[in-house]
Amino acid sequence: MQPTPLPLRDIHLPEAIAWWPPAIGWWLLALLILLTGFFCYRLYKHLRRKTAVKTAKKILLAIKLDKEKTNLQKLGELSSLLRRVAISLSPRVAVAGLTGQAWLAFLDSSVKEAAFGTGIGHCLLNAPYQKTQPTDSELAELISLCERWLKAQAKQPKLKPAK
To answer: Which residues of the chain are modeled with pLDDT < 50?
Structure first.
């Protein structure tokens, strides 16, 4: 018997793999990178806020316990401390230019009562220009108000400027 030729064809190579669309693994990797970046940013913001408030509380305690400075000097340092904390926790553009009643309204937006605008916190407006010293009880009340404001900053996600 004679072998019959088989109808075989030559070897065909597969087509080259296209680079687009990428496989599902590359999509998952891209999503993972984006999510990791987002969570790292949020963690950075949280730690920065926490550090700023913790440092401000230490400075406030140092102001409170300092016996060498006059009440007028302590009042000026309190005003400066609140301004620095607000600028470090909020967008600088929104907070740095606030003065007068707008500044006090901004501070009041973080605490329940309007103690800055109508209460003891009002003396922060004239702190650099005041000639008479606040009494010890007024300063203790103001320091207590500043402590409440700092405690509110530790809980709040973001400060909003008053309009």
So the answer is: 159
